[in-house]
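Objective 1.3, modelling of assemblies. Example input:
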Amino acid sequence: MLTIQNLSAGYGELEILHNVNVKVNDDEIVALIGPNGAGKSTILKSIFALTTITHGTITFNAEEITQCKTHQLLERGISYVPQGRINFGDLTISENLAIGGKDIVEKQEYSERLAHIFTLFPVLKTKLSHTAFSLSGGEQQMLALARALMQKPKLLLLDEPTLGLSPKLQKELFTLLQHIRNLEHVSILIVEQNAKKAIESADRTYLLENGSIIMEGGKEIIENPKIQQVYLGGSY
Ligand SMILES: Nc1ncnc2c1ncn2[C@@H]1O[C@H](COP(=O)(O)OP(=O)(O)OP(=O)(O)O)[C@@H](O)[C@H]1O
Ligand SMILES: [Mg+2]
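Predicted structure (tokens):
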């Protein structure tokens, strides 16, 4: 569904990604791993039209989107949750979710969507009038994810959703993402610091170093000597 071909991109004159090729198939969870500064976030930002693309193409459902603006990508069903817990801190949970669902015009459809979101994230329902700022780290991550899901995306771009969560919550979040993928038929491209968790939980993983993909594969790459040597200490 998503194909990134020979992509070179960066910020202004500064090229960060060099000839990157990444594919995400229907209903697939794909992880991007690699050390700090490798360019993982830059890949997600490039898909979401937030970088300077100097070479290559990005296609989504057989349509080229390389030159699309961010709002056009949203319309096509791509949703992006940036690194850090990006909610509207002063607004309530209810208001944050309303922003996520602002394009749902039908009242009935909106309340159905909201009810469905609460089945996925029951904790949010109990704190509707609380500000996003007052939530715990894990809850804030849930809210960011819930907001992105309000618009029924076909492709979800998640930048380190497990950052700062306890190992237990990290595991729960991955399980939840697998559940969401099955239920919503959404493909997920996820940046994850913890190489082991990423490889175990995703269908496929790409390893990025210095702006280039240096390895890709399914769960079997956990056995790869380089992955074993360098990355299986846990986090980078
Ligand atoms: N807005 C920007 N302007 C200029 N350079 C940037 C900008 N954002 C990121 N960079 C640079 O691009 C490179 C890759 O950054 P990126 O955020 O993609 O890395 P990352 O793999 O996501 O790292 P981390 O694991 O720390 O989040 C870094 O050298 C960074 O300094
Ligand atoms: Mg990053």
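The chain has a mean pLDDT of 93.
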